[in-house]
Design brief:
The complex is a heterodimer. Chain A is of the alpha/beta class. Chain A has a single domain, classed as Rossmann fold, CATH 3.40.50. Chain A is built from eight helices and ten strands. Chain A has a six-stranded mixed beta sheet with strand order 6-7-8-3-9-10, sandwiched between helices. Chain A has a four-stranded antiparallel beta sheet with strand order 2-1-4-5, with no helix packed on it. In chain A, helix 3 runs parallel beside helix 5 and helix 5 packs parallel to helix 6. The longest helix of chain A has 16 residues, at 166-181. Chain A starts with a strand and ends with a helix. Chain B is mainly alpha-helical. Chain B is 72% helix and 0% strand. Chain B has a single domain, classed as ABC transporter involved in vitamin B12 uptake, BtuC. Classes of the chains: A alpha/beta, B mainly alpha. At the A-B interface, helix 2, strand 6, helix 3 and helix 5 of A face helix 9 and helix 10 of B.
Chain lengths: 236, 339
């Protein structure tokens, strides 16, 4: 089977090339958590994987195709990205946002399909609410659902829980966990160890570190938070 | 009221205002006389008034209103800034400078030339407005706050205003008078050609906005979201800025720097309860722009005041109410997000 995403010999663009050369493959349903301190290159990595930033060296393949050579629409149907803050300036309501996700994924937008997607997340009552009227936590969950409904294969998440309270964080993490069962591959970047400590869905852990700290390290589950904490903070 | 019903009411209002403008005026013509003139059964004074004065003026008002409304809607959506609009961002100022360079520099008189005689002025307005749009497109990534964009427009306005003043100082009296008159804004200088050009431009812009409506909607979710949802950022940016700038530039060439229509029209539509998707906003914005322009022109003809005075008296309070967060023009957000 074609891997969802294959990163080969990847060096990020300056000034983030310090994280070293990255190599990894995610099969359908396999998830990756990218850990790193502020400014360690997490966002640059996600933007490079998303095809928005060209790499310094190496390739990113999405379903066997070079992500930087793909047509924008084809890429959007396979891979979605959600940022840390939900949009605040949109006048769209939850159904409309979801409809756009369907469109980006290449599906036809039907009222029935939208209802089903909302109902699966217990959001049916939110359909007519505008994103600007929701709390940050609710709006962020809508944007996560948007990413899930859009992506056919890979979902990139950049600090999705950074601005959420404890309950919102747990809900969002549970949402993300369910996607794995649907065969999506999630790549989640965060500096929040506690939020992902309970995340039992992660298969791999990538700790981004500058060369002075010993370079980046890829770990496989079982994940030990103490080990990750040592890699992130402690001396080598 | 449902959007469909609102569109019906707006269309009825548009027809009513158009008919009113066509059949009422200071000439004091009789009903049957005007009707015969409209149908071409009479070739005298009434025919000239209806066909050469009133019809071009009303069509110009209608189209200019629709074009500016659409231009404003595009800019507010693209910049994700409800205070954006052709006059606020300096596009109208740029177009004004372009017109000043042609009208004052060459001695050609603004607003009085017929048909193709307006061509240099149109080119001037489009180049001036286009230049500001290109500038905006190049620097917008550097704006750190939403206010920076508005201050950019303000400063462009000062700069072009100063350059226009320099041009005015060296201009001859006749050209200067005509230019100042043009600057007050008027729909009276339209003709068949201007209407055809504005109609074509507005129709093309509206069709594209409808076809690419999802790109506009995705854009409101943030640049990163839009780009990963399949919007080609560069192509989208230049098409929006080019289209919105061209609409504003064309209107400015023929009608002068029309104030507030582009900014206020989308707000009026939102105040009617229509907001959200581009496909939902588009037709109401076109209709409301036309209604507003016809209404303003009616006041101009009735009271003899300049167009921009009328529009500013209506437009400025709309913006003030919006930033104060009061009344129908207030922004609706989750209470926790209010500053």
């Amino acid at each position: 089977m074609t891997p969802h995403i294959a990163v080969r010999n990847l060096t990020l663009r300056r000034p983030e090339q310090g994280v070293g050369t990255l190599d990894f493959v995610l099969e359908p349903g396999q998830n990756l958590v990218v850990l790193g301190r502020n400014g360690s290159g997490k966002s640059t990595l996600l933007r490079t994987l998303a095809g928005l930033l060209p790499p310094q060296l190496g390739t990113v393949e999405l379903m066997g195709q070079d992500v930087h050579a793909m047509a924008t629409r084809r890429r959007a149907a396979l891979m979605a990205l959600a940022a840390s803050t939900p949009p605040r300036e949109t006048a769209l309501n939850v159904r409309e946002v979801l409809g756009l996700a369907f469109e980006a994924s290449g599906r036809t937008v039907t009222s029935k399909a939208l209802d089903a997607a909302l109902e699966a997340q217990g959001m049916l009552d939110w359909g007519g609410l505008r994103l600007s009227e929701l709390s940050d936590g609710m709006a962020q969950r809508v944007m996560l659902l948007r990413a899930f409904e859009q992506s056919g294969a890979v979902i990139l998440l950049d600090e999705p829980t950074a601005f959420l309270d404890v309950v919102g964080r747990a809900e969002a993490m549970a949402d993300i966990g369910r996607w794995k069962d649907n065969g999506r591959s999630v790549i989640l970047a965060t500096h929040d160890l506690e939020a992902v400590e309970q995340a039992e869905w992660a298969d791999r852990w990538l700790v981004l570190r500058p060369p002075s700290a010993g370079g980046s390290v890829m770990m496989v589950t079982p994940f030990k938070a103490s080990e990750a904490r040592r890699l992130l903070t402690g001396p080598v | 009221m449902s959007p469909t019903r609102i569109k019906g009411v707006l269309s009825a209002l548009l027809v009513l205002l158009f008919m009113g403008g066509l059949f009422f005026g200071p000439a004091g013509l009789g009903w049957s006389e005007q009707w015969d003139a409209l149908l071409g059964r009479e070739q005298g004074m009434a025919h000239t008034i209806i066909w050469s004065l009133r019809l071009p003026r009303l069509c110009t008002a209608l189209l200019a209103g629709a074009a500016l409304g659409l231009s404003g809607l595009m800019m507010q959506t693209y910049f994700r800034n409800a205070l954006a609009g052709p006059s606020v961002l300096g596009v109208t100022s740029g177009a004004t400078l372009g017109v000043a360079m042609v009208a004052l520099g060459t001695g050609a008189v603004a607003g009085s030339a017929d048909g193709w005689g307006m061509a240099p002025q149109v080119v001037g307005a489009l180049s001036g407005g286009g230049l500001v749009m290109v500038l905006l497109g190049l620097v917008m990534g550097r704006f750190r706050s939403r206010t920076a964009l508005l201050i950019f427009g303000l400063m462009v306005g000062y700069l072009t205003g100063a350059m226009v003043t320099v041009l005015q100082a060296g201009a001859d009296a006749g050209a200067l008078q005509a230019f100042v008159h043009w600057g007050m804004g008027s729909f009276a200088h339209g003709n068949g050609l201007s209407c055809a050009v504005m109609a074509l431009a507005t129709a093309l812009a509206a069709l594209w906005s409808l076809r690419d409506g999802s790109s506009f909607d995705m854009w409101t979710l943030g640049t990163l979201a839009a780009r990963t949802m399949g919007v080609d950022e560069r192509k989208f940016t230049w098409t929006v800025l080019g289209t919105a700038g061209a609409l504003a530039g064309l209107v400015t060439a023929w009608c002068g720097p029309v104030a507030f229509l582009g900014l206020a029209t989308p707000h009026l539509v939102r105040a009617m309860g229509i907001r959200g998707r581009m496909a939902v906003m588009l037709v109401p914005v076109l209709l409301t722009g036309g209604v507003l322009a016809l209404l303003a022109d009616g006041v101009v003809r009735w009271m003899g005041v300049p167009l921009n005075a009328v529009l500013s008296l209506v437009g400025a309070p709309v913006v003030l109410l919006f930033i104060l967060g009061k009344g129908p023009f207030a922004r609706r957000t989750h209470s926790a997000n209010r500053p």
